[in-house]
Amino acid sequence: MAEITYLEALRQGLREEMARDERVFILGEDVGLYGGAFKVTEGLMQQFGEGRVIDTPISEAAIVGAAAGAAHMGMRPVAEMQFIDFISCAYDMLTNYVATARYRAGLATPLVVRGPCGGYVRGGPFHSQNVEAAFFHTPGLKIVYPATVADAKGLIKSAIRDEDPVIYLEHKWLYRRIKAELPDGADVLTPIGEARLARAGDALSIVTYGATVWKALEAADLLAQQDGLSVEVLDLRTLVPMDDAAIMRSVRKTNKVLIVHEDTRTGGLAGEIAARINEQAFEWLDGPIMRVTAHDVPLPYAPALEDFVLPQTEDIVKAARWLAKY
Amino acid sequence: MTSRTAPPIPAPPPREAPPIPAGLTRGQLLEIYRYLRLTRILEERLVALYKQSKVIGGLFRSLGQEGESVASAYALERGSHKDFLSPLIRNLGSMLVMGAQPIQILRQYMAKATSPTGGRELNVHFGDLERGYLGQISHLGDMIPVLAGIALTFKLRGERRVALVYIGDGGTSTGTFHEGLNFAAVQRVPLVVIGEYNHWAYSTPPEKQFAVPHLADRVRGYGVPASTVDGNDVLAVYAETKGAVERARGGGGVQFIEVKTYRRKGHAEHDDQSYVPAGESERWARENDPIDRYVVQVLDNEWAQAGELEEIDARVRAEVDTATDACVNDPAPRPESALPSVYADPPAASLHWYRSL
């Protein structure tokens, strides 16, 4: 067993599903011969041929629309957005066409739209976005957001096998930053809809997902060392359908909740999570539900600006200390 | 002077009907006529139901466009898992050709529990993947990429099937139309696009949609062969589409046919058409109705007798009567049936807490 990166785990998942199921094919910009802007699909065209790894024009609406048509006909398309920022160009196709298809017309549309998200990489306003809130609101789409190497693989495989359309959000800051050993030969599958307890604790709960899982774990280590605080970290992994039961289990255990996400605050997922806790576990709370998120600005480029806008480990530490004392 | 008698005039040989064009048989001509008449009579019935407030939402007519809808769909290979099309709101005729039943249309418009979408969607927004038609959504242009994906699947699987999709003159202004057409052209998928130049996008005329005279001019830049045909000449549309379908089937890539026609009713039944120049719609009705022209052509060429057409009219009227009687009193959907099947899993959306108080 060798250690592999988050990106390699994702590629492994794609390769295994393509080998397992001939209906699976990839389409997107520069995904074929070039292997994708981040090399996620490197080698797949050479292995599976041009009919299964299709280079497309710069046309996100056409990529998603064509994937939908193919999915209706029994294929299992995986559409790549070169950066997830460009998924907004396919917003109509995803929210109006794809998301409604089963409900309005009984149409199965088992497709995956995936792409690199997130900041901490000096990408500026158009190569750093988190888009989950834009799609979270639309019934009919599932959203997964792996934080670990195992889930990068396990969730792409589950997403491809799912009967519903899935948006798979992968964090580019994690691509080559984290490594882990995965079992050889075993079918690594992460069930859609199940959160993961990333760290157990009893003083307070941090509910988070994506890259900020790692910031939260780092903060929890510091709080344990410096304050003797035992912090629980819940990695949601799937955003739709959200694992309410896991969130409430943690709230009932620690009675205090800090919600952390990299996306901007207003209209972000933290608001919805807080509302669910309020409705389902109000009497278990010993303090206000608090948020640590990006500031409500487009993400700027300069390191000093980006670092200031995005939530940092230090922010989580300070917020958790404040909440622990409440 | 001797009188001479004129030579006797030879009796004319018995007149033979000219050959039926485009390889069609007499039986097929009558079948096309049946679909044309069914489209019009079914819509007339829907108007009556609309006036009785039995149609729940808007009513969208295809009056004046029945010819191109029926003829283009008729050029496809039809049956279980054969060719495929996606109609727009004024392509009722093409859906009927593909196998949609009048009772399904009536139930859809009246939002019955028994409708193909169980009351979830309106009018002609439904499909049947096996019979080969896929309901549109209201966002014009979106069906072009979707049908490009269906045609791509045919190509990837090596199936000799063709997809056909409609777009209106207004719809060709959307981004998805251009993205989808270009994608399909680059991939050389077996797709036929019917561009319906019907002179009105709601109230907007073509000169406010694009700065070229013909839809065909808009698409040639994508490397797509494009022709323009009289959309109210049923047999011309059939022949042109048949050729395009077979070229697409043979690996020739995307084909575009512009059909010049005229939308004689408003965008929907509520629309007073105040923007239409006086007399214009009436002139099209008088001089250029696709069904009238077809009847004249069929009778003048003696491909059918008037009595045969009248018999079809009577059968179609009876069919629409029977379908109406069979569904007009169908129940509305149960309210709770609004919750299931947003997803395959979970099977239903959850009921809000205050509904159980």
List the helices and strands and how they pair.
The complex is a heterodimer of chains A (326) and B (357).
Chain A: E1 3-5, H1 6-20, E2 24-28, H2 44-48, E3 53-55, H3 60-72, E4 76-80, H4 91-98, H5 101-105, E5 112-117, H6 132-136, E6 142-144, H7 149-161, E7 166-171, E8 179-181, E9 196-199, E10 204-208, H8 212-227, E11 231-235, E12 238-240, H9 244-254, E13 257-264, H10 269-281, E14 290-294, H11 303-309, H12 313-325
Parallel strand pairs in A: 2-3, 2-4, 4-5, 5-7, 6-7, 10-11, 10-13, 13-14
Antiparallel strand pairs in A: 1-8, 6-12, 9-11
Helix pairs in contact in A: 1-7, 3-4, 8-12, 9-10
Chain B: H1 26-51, H2 66-74, E1 84-86, H3 92-98, H4 102-109, H5 143-157, E2 163-168, H6 175-187, E3 191-197, H7 215-219, E4 226-230, H8 234-252, E5 255-260, H9 280-287, H10 290-300, H11 306-327
Parallel strand pairs in B: 1-2, 2-3, 3-5, 4-5
Helix pairs in contact in B: 1-2, 1-3, 1-10, 1-11, 2-3, 2-8, 4-11, 5-6
